[in-house]
Protein 1
Amino acid sequence: MQSYNNHREKLTLLKEKKLSLTENAAFYLDRISEHKDINAFNFVFEDSVEIAANIEKKIHSGNHGRLAGMIIAVKDVLAIKDKPLTCSSKILRNFNSIFTATAVEKLIQEDAIIIGKTNCDEFAMGSSNENSAFGSVLNPIDKTKVPGGSSGGSAAAVAAYLCDASIGTDTGGSIRQPAAFCGLFGLKPSYGRVSRYGLTAFASSFDTIGPFANSLEDIALILSVISGFDEKDSTSARIEVPDFVTQPDREKKLKVGIPSEYFGDGLNPEVKNRVLEVIEKLKNVEAEIIDIHLPHNQFAIAAYYILTTAEASSNLARYDGVRYSYRSKDSANLNDLYTKTRHDGFGDEVKRRIMLGTYVLSSGYYDAYYLKAQKVRRLIKSDFDKAFSIVDVVLTPTSPFTAFSIGEKKDDPLEMYLSDIYTTSANLAGIPGINIPIGYDLKGLPIGLQLMANQFEEQKLLQSASLIDNLLKQE
Ligand code: GLN
């Protein structure tokens, strides 16, 4: 589709004047309007060509940032000054942000071009992008299928070549699962690695920001740029950010843990066989495969949906019709204003989660649900601590199945929640995870493999991911 495979190659072409950045930006804008049916974007920034002209000058003068000319789409839950921020919700439909999220600011400082804001599930709640006030997003690989969620627009935009890379958020799998469904690399960093300042909160102790791209090199580059301590986010970690692009050679054999709990009932046989095939290949090279156990993973979905809904019920209390955007008309009094605004402004899934969250926090039920789920979270973390005392990375499928049909699970929330069976545990434990595209099923739909590493070990995660990627390139 493009004459370059990653940003390094693009920058070389730009420097040698073999590629014009303004033409490249115009090309993407054209493609976005040609592929409107995919519905990947909530807003497109037409001034991208002008910005490209300025950055092109910087490139030719040799005075440019690390992402110079990279065209990036940003999920519409991240703030960009003077641009709309809707979270794909009616309740924020006319809201413009007054500041820029740190992660986006860092991209801009390195001369990336933000081409638009991508569609997603409302407030990032969902696994199919069907819960959006802007409508569903289609999977570019097969337009009868969902792209995954909640960062479905970000994944579809990269898969349809509407931009070079994109930014999504992952609270329970929303980067890794859509990356798997669309055949891309998608990385969820450790909790605390990337500042959440300017990210609209869904579940504050779970939310993370990360990249989607067609190459691991671009994933590593974007991660290097957006990572780091930020005094505007007290939960961002004061920890050194290595250059994720240049990876040191491994001295020892890579130890890969395979948790039997992730290969049981409910896993589609085609997905299972392909993941097992990759494991076999790994055995023949530099890796040692070790069977491990993550026994509390069976409680991950339950704990995730108790804790995240509890946090969401509190975070979403601020949308009251007084502040921010949408306000219902004709209310009799203040209480009525709150009720009508929230009734009309939020979609069904968001309301379901607010009610669930309020319930698990209510007196009488707090101990039975919220407190218990916190204890389960600790046990899940301890399982990983044990695992990482013997292995470098944990390898699993990313999703139990490939992309499903639009409408297939929409009316069955529990079925939908099961999409996240292999991804929520990383968010519960705060550890990084990545999706690696490893091939296709018989219907031609992408299959994804997940790697997880210990907290702040993104370097190891990327190293292991490239080992697998290189293995697959030799196939
Ligand atoms: N699909 C999960 C949910 O609905 C994860 C969402 C996310 O990571 N933002 O909560």
Protein 2
Amino acid sequence: MADSRAIGVFDSGLGGLTVMREIAHRLPKEDIVYFGDTGRVPYGNRGKEIIRKYAVDDEKFLLQHNVKLIVAACGTVSSVAADTGYALPVPFFEMITHAAREAVRVTRNHKIGVIGTAATVGSGSHKQAIAALDPTAQVTACACPMFVPIVEEGWVDAGDELVNAVVARYVDPIIRAGCDTLILGCTHYPLLRHAIRAVVGEITLIDPGVAVAAAIQDYLSATGLFNADGGGQQRFFVTDKTQSFQKTASILLGKPMDETCVELVELEGL
Ligand code: DGL
């Protein structure tokens, strides 16, 4: 039994394109509807209640597009509003559970680092998910609020002195704690992987987008709900197109974004 409905992916903005990329790479035949709440980004420095309200709006929007499953690509939403997703009438994937499972699988010394937005780290979501799988694990979590603007500026080069200094300052507690595994717990951070690698050395980096794409593939295999004859069509909806939209979208998508596939929408009246 195939299912030609699209996979719905949402994020606070354009960062979730890094997750969408991983899903499209692993499941090229699946159609994807991407929703980025670019009019209200960032979520990561907001309070829990407002993030939850925004998450519900975003999920409603995707449901209107008749998607077969929904992915909260946003680490912040996944951390503070996953219950809103699990209450939906379609299967829901968030960015914490699968990354935690992968981190617990690969760590040798049971010392796991987590980096994310202030809201993500403040929620303790990764700590909780890791403790449920490995109660002996020690988790060191650090908020890295400057990483998002740095990535959106396109400053991701491992050789860039400023990037290097910012990364070194943020991840210092993780290095000092002796972590052998580090979860990149925010949409933008996989783009900094080379810069992070240059600072942390041999620590294993976990990209939640890769882990979630694999989990979606497993789910589609188990249920048979693949898009058997799909062409991998992608549609993008955003709530604002700022001046830097094209630049930011292309950085996060890893290729120039075709603006003709992007529609501007209003969330009012959902
Ligand atoms: N997408 C967000 C996340 O992964 C980062 C940007 C924001 O703060 O909204 O947490």
